[in-house]
Write a structure and sequence with these properties.
This protein is an alpha+beta fold. The protein has 5 helices and 4 strands; from the N terminus they run H-H-H-H-H-E-E-E-E. It has one domain: Nuclear Transport Factor 2, Chain: A (Roll).
Length: 168
Amino acid sequence: MPPCDDAPSNRTSHGGTMRTTTAATLTAVLLLGLTACTSSGDDSKPETKPTPAASSEQEPAEPAPAPEAAALEDAVRDYTAAYFAGEASTAHRMLSERCRGQINELVFGASVEQAAEEYGPDHAATDVKAEVSGEMGRVSYRVEGLPKFDQDAQPWTLEGGAWKYDAC
């Protein structure tokens, strides 16, 4: 997505009004938000995993993630909760500096509010798995009840000691 043009204009080069430009920009950001949150897989069928046969022996618990990965996983859960709850300012603060420079806060807020209206707040991030390398992270997770928003290797970056969404 090209950087946002912050210079106000009452007319476009084709003679349209700013309302047309604003509507087109909002539509583009909404589509960006959906594509940034949509995996490339087929959304028509929910993924099913075979259930392991019951065993009399207790399987070892999955090891806890490293502290930096655990912090990233928490950030993903917080961002997803804010996004679907319509908490636009919270979600916007969780964008990386690079993304905040590319995405207009008001347009982003409108897309978050629309997602909250369409889907509601009951869509937690589940099965969150983070891989961290220095200040960069990749996170795979599922969005409860909305498989079209499931993510694989979504980019995040560490800025000022906090993990920020970097998939703009």
